[in-house]
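Q: I'm writing a short methods note and want an example of a predicted protein-small molecule complex. Could you take the sequence and the SMILES for zinc ion and return the bound structure as tokens? Please keep the output block clean; save any remarks for afterwards.
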Amino acid sequence: MRVTVLGAGDAFCSGGRRHSGYFVETSGVCFLLDCGTTTLLALKSLGIPAERIDFVAISHLHGDHFGGLPFLFLEYLYETPRSRPLIIVGPVGTEERVQALHQAMYRELARRPCSFDIQFQELTSGEAAVVHGVQLFPFRVPHQEQDISLGYRVEAEGHAILYSGDCGWNEDLVRYSQGTDLFVCECCYFKTEASFHISYPKIAQEQHRLGCKRLVLSHIGREVLERLNEVSIECTHDGMVIEIP
Ligand SMILES: [Zn+2]
Ligand SMILES: [Zn+2]
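A: Understood, no commentary inside the block.
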């Protein structure tokens, strides 16, 4: 299994980092975890063909996590024509929000019949789903008040990854990171304490309880970048390739 970080930045593109997106490869299946606005840019600059993507799993419906989908659709219509279906999984409301975004950005195209099928699977927190043989366990995380934000525990070929999505610190992260090969944890803040994002001192304090083989920080915000010399946990960067042996 291999994870390529397409975007390690927060919504503000702090430090010039791209919006969230991770390209995950197993021996038989490739998929995206999140598809922020800069995802197609990242795929092209890293030389990853977009047609390799079998499905996309969205953590929550914020632009820095799903705003790149209309550009992916455009790529599949014109540049690398796609005929096989594209599965998009995400929290309740994903289909409506993605369609609305597509129509807002490319209204006439979005109204025409598409050359490939876009199949939506809206997931419920706590109910595992299998997509192209990859097991996804979604769990609700504290990030938005009404709309649902999900974290994912992903399992394939005997490996497990935990992806926090965007969230405040919560005990489910400790529970679901146990035994994982990789935990990609958001780290938006350093000194700011909030219930909807994680600050570095909290993850540093809780690190010993996580039970994962490798912990990396992502969705890295300005405060963290300003104090990188105080950060002892591994940080991701755009284009970083993480091999999971
Ligand atoms: Zn975000
Ligand atoms: Zn968010």
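A: Remarks, as requested: The pocket of zinc ion (ligand 2) is lined by residues 60, 62, 143, 166 (CB under 6 Å). The radius of gyration is 17 Å.
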